[in-house]
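Weekly structure sync, notes
Attendees: PL (lead), two postdocs, one rotation student
Agenda item 3: pending single-chain targets
PL asked that the sequence for the first pending target be pasted directly into the notes so everyone works from the same version. It is reproduced below exactly as submitted, 575 residues in total.
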Amino acid sequence: NTPEIILLYSQILGMDYPWEKYAQVVVKDYVSGAMENTSATIHGDFVQRTSRELLDGDYEDVIAHELFHHWFGDYVTCESWANLPLNESFATYGEYLWIEHKHGHDAAEQHGYESMMGYFSEARLKNEDLIRFVYADKEDMFDAHSYNKGGRVLHMLRYLVGDSAFFESLNVYLTDNALQDAEIHHLRLAFEKVTGQDLNWFFNQWFLNSGHPVLEITYFFDEERGQQILVRQTQGAEESDVFQLPLAIDIHVGDEVMRMNEFMTEQEEVFTYPLAQPASWINVDADHTLLAQKQDNRPDEWWTLQFRNSQNYLDRLEALEMWSTLVTDTLTPLTLEALQDPFWNIRMIGLNQLELAYDLPIEALDLLRVLAKADEKTQVRGKALVLMATFFPNQTSEELYVDAITKEQSYVVIAAGLKGLSILNLERAITMASTLEAERNFAIISAVAGLYEESGNKNKHAYFKQTLAALSGYEQYLFMRNYTGYLAGQENAALVDAVAGIESVGRNASLWWNRLAAYQALEQILGQLDARKAGLQEADEKAQIEGYIDGIQTTIVSMKKAEKDGQLLKVLEER
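Predicted structure, written out during the meeting:
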């Protein structure tokens, strides 16, 4: 889809791709994920997938991100690290624009929501200005503020000025600053030139300040005044903490909906609407454009009405997730309905809620069968297969899972078939797993290794040793966990036999965190041997294990002496 992505960006920006060619180079174990070198982007090898792997997902967001940089970051670049969001916020929002164009509004909103959640997670630990002039190291700028928060701020700006003005302003910014360095005020001036508005308040608030609004929303109905909505900003008590917020409020009365566009400027405001009767339900920030956290004190039944009546994906997501916090010991009223939602992630969340239930009503089985056999998303099909085996083992045929393992093309579905079969018939699953040992796809490797780890089969050590040696990158890091879990149930000889392969990773893996995983694995082996020694009475057996321990400790010391990576050595010293 790369040519189509280039065409999309050229069209919406009103500026053709500005370089003579575009190459994409895949580099094994590339430490930075991807890099937008002008006209020749480098990608980590994770983006290169077979046609079968593409059934389970792609990395179009990464492809799109690096391509948008060729306008924002290469054609016009930030004049300092402090202004890095001029590069990374735009590239992050480029992902949204591509997904919206190619896969629809629901898919784009899901992507944007996940990005926003990434920022909120980081904001619990640090709170920085988006454009910041004080930082310990330039690498500190490459965070969920510069990427995730900045992308959502651009999304708010788009909704504030409208699509036409937004994309025209981007064209002016690129044209006026072509092949030059820029800072945040160049972007503001471009938007002011197009819109005729003073946007200092927006840029000061979102780019040159820190934090985000936290809103508490409460509803009242008064026979004299009508419907009232109290919105409080709770993120801080100082005047400087108050955000100016455009609020789109949808008021539903029966089958009618009224859109009220408000502008909040105070820490606490009451919005009043002269209705003769209470609203059926109300939706504050109805388009879900605000970068804000909300405590919405609405009646529980409003969440159900929102889920059942809204075409907005984020409305349905919000309602489904809120109901899961209201009901903890049983299924929510919406869970089974979610399995029939038009967007796959709502169906997936419904399945995740089913997984937490104590038991399921029989009507869930028919819904699971439909998803397992025909859902367009392989992750949904796989999850449904596992849940059928988990909750309805007596009504589920083993052959369904054997067919999934032997006839499906999707690796995710094959792995789920193996997991489901292990629930129904563990021995048969182990036999089927042996036919998959040559597969190099990590979903299959993880499923097979997990099954062997769970079963503790003593005949599968060779599989773990061979697979560990064949893997690299993050897959090798993850696999090490399965390996150490498997070894925990093995005899002493197997623990000692594992040391050489783990030592090889600790000395030779190109990524330092893989080498760290090797140290951790050796330490776990030491701990197991030491615990076993403590339970022995025979002096000869104790001496044998002490010999094993001395040998592994010598190996670890030797590995540390040979290690050159300062970051890893620092981590090892702190352990």
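Discussion points:
- The longest helix spans residues 539-562.
- The two ends are 46 Å apart (CA to CA).
Action: rotation student to compare against the earlier draft before next sync.
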